[in-house]
């Protein structure tokens, strides 16, 4: 490829798949954990990982070119970024890489042309809804929950540090999973009471996490389905990384249930990646393709698209507050 080659972006995208596959292999085999104590040769690492030495060497060579490893006289050692692929370190992203590289998720991306032709998710046609698939596979469920927790961390700190909840009494985190975001809000706002609302499969993990954080005495734990109904009582209703999972029709069902449960002076906080309206690169556009592949109906949305959902649900946008990183909070109130 030459400088200013119009085909260069095409080849960059093509070879990007190979780079991620190598990274996912390193994460799946647990290479970073074996390298935590210091450098190892490819042969020694292959023996510890249960891998073919030559194949692993070729994979590590690719990963080193990406900056996660470096070559030293003793073999390969982790860089600062490479340490984040360990399982046991703060800020570990290993489960996120493994989740995206999971076999069925790879199938979803590979079948994107089929999804686009038919308008129906090839993943969903084969495996059912992503939450059904996760629920049927306990090992994947553990991985998925860890992935969602990692993904929620910048959302949690961004919301807790930048959104004023001083006038709120009680916040309910709908579909709150392990309670990472709710925990951040309760920690930042000692006056606040919380409700963690989710399916029975995941609520126990949230109870354990908030108990460990010393916040369980300020929190209720409610098993439920936001399609069936939402408990009243809170004045702040949080939907964090929820609406993007669902079609317009399903999103309106959720939001109407929220409106039915909330007081007239209540508010809804929709914490999502909000798409720009122009052609600039945006992580939300990458996420939108993943949502298209996995769910068919789920999508990332623009401010106007969120306003349309809200209007159909008896709500309206009060403001959109961009947060550090990728996310924004859409504050909505009753019409």
Quick summary:
The protein is α/β, with parallel strands linked by helices and 335 residues long. The chain has 16 helices and 9 strands.
Structure explained in plain terms:
By secondary structure, the protein is of the alpha/beta class. The protein is built from 16 helices and 9 strands. α1 crosses α6 (94-100), α3 (42-49) packs across α4 and α11 packs parallel to α12. The termini are far apart.
List the SSEs and their pairings:
Blueprint: H1 8-29, H2 31-34, H3 42-49, H4 53-65, E1 69-72, E2 75-78, H5 80-83, H6 94-100, H7 103-110, H8 112-118, H9 122-127, H10 130-136, H11 138-162, E3 170-174, H12 180-188, E4 193-198, H13 200-212, E5 219-223, E6 236-240, H14 248-261, E7 267-272, H15 283-295, H16 303-311, E8 315-322, E9 328-334
Parallel strand pairs: 3-4, 3-6, 4-5, 6-7
Antiparallel strand pairs: 1-2, 7-9, 8-9
Strand/helix succession: HHHHEEHHHHHHHEHEHEEHEHHEE
Biggest beta-sheet profile: 7 strands, mixed
> Averaged pLDDT, please?
94
Q: Helicity, in percent?
A: 40-55%
- Euclidean distance between termini CA atoms: 56 Å
Radius of gyration over alpha carbons? 22 Å
Q: Assess the beta-strand content as a share of residues.
A: 5-15%
Task: Describe the strand arrangement of the main beta sheet, using strand numbers.
Answer: 5-4-3-6-7-9-8
How many helical elements? Answer: 16
| Spatial shape | globular
- Uncertain residue segments: none
| Structural class category | alpha/beta
Number of separate strands: 9
